[in-house]
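lol ok so funny story. i was supposed to be doing the assay writeup but got distracted and ended up predicting the structure for this chain instead. priorities right. anyway since i did it might as well share w the group, maybe its usefull for someone
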Amino acid sequence: MSGFVEMMAAPVVVALVLVGMHGYLGSHVVRRGVIFVDIALAQMAAFGVALAMLFGAEIGTLTAYAVGVGSTILGAVLLSFTRTHEERIPQEAYIGIVYVVFSAAMILVLSQVAHGGEEIKNLLVGAILWVSWSEVLKTAALYGVLGLVLWRSHEALIRISLDPVDARASGLNLRLWDFVFYAVLGTVVTASVQIAGVLMVFTMLVVPTVMALRLFHTTRAQFTFILSIGTLAVIGGAALSYVLDLPTGAAIVCTFGLFLGVQIVWQGLPRSGS
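and the output, tada:
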């Protein structure tokens, strides 16, 4: 037990920090129906980090973070312009294009970097096991500041996520608020991609929210459930990786997937009297 705590304390704590912020943002992502926007922005962040590495920066440095944020801000601008009054082309189509193009661009860049194959793996599944307490504190402080921005913007963002037609009719500038949302989301995923990788970022944003929406109708109950199930999945996945000597990030992602699978089967079972 003491060995588990010593080795896994920092990874578990930073993962729990990620659960809270990603859970809130994920609720907006799912309600907007732009499920893959998070993984697209995460991929843009990964591309920015890869570009910084090409010029000599290391993952986790201020330079890598700055270039990653710049890349995701570019993505926020692009995605905010893809929402149109006439949705003849679903916004998800543009999101998919962004993801594919920047995935290919990341591979091209890292092919010119020493140990590029290993870096691709790190940006996909992360290296959360090696996170330091200083990184935990920096991430928590950053998310605290961004949390204040989201708190001040909550009313406008939730109206747009729930009913964009009504929000536009009431005078809200959807393009402006979309940019705010995507900029915050991009800044968050730039930090989390370097810690947890693209796959865990996507999982934490989407899976807990999907599970919550299947069970509850109020936002407060949904967010409470997101925090609870996220905590269980993080601790369970970390324990599994420690006992079986598995990659921590991948184990946490699979634990989330297992929880969702169990929920779907459980809810699909016939009930007595039905």
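The chain has a mean pLDDT of 84. DSSP finds ten helices and no strands in the chain.
back to the writeup now i swear
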